[in-house]
């Protein structure tokens, strides 16, 4: 019979991460000096998939598998807001074969000491490989984007603007007028 070590959870209770806390930001790479990365509005679902094909060679002793290169794909589904510019930029980048940057930011894991004020993230460069718009008579218009990353990406910590932080949750505003600062 297998024993379970309950001490694994004694010091620190495991905590799950809400789906709202894992966000994706995009930017057309050529705009990196003039624009911050932005998020799709009204995202209903994101997914990052890593896959790897493997060739199989039959030998007298059995099959030998040789792994191929990993492929990373990020999909995002959202509702289309009126006047949205981000979808237009990403569609234009796809049609014109422009490199797109993507950050997967985990707002549930802020950095510590040297990375204070930043959030754990993964950074990718790649291309929009698919963009679909679906309009059902009874529902809102839905947009689906597929992003194919070049290489494996890089781990780090992202600095977010207040606007980017609002992606995951509303920030409290007071009832008095806002200062112009």
UniProtKB/TrEMBL annotation:
Pfam families: Phage_tail_2 (PF06199). It comes from the Bacteria. This is Phage major tail protein, TP901-1 family. It comes from Faecalibacillus faecis.
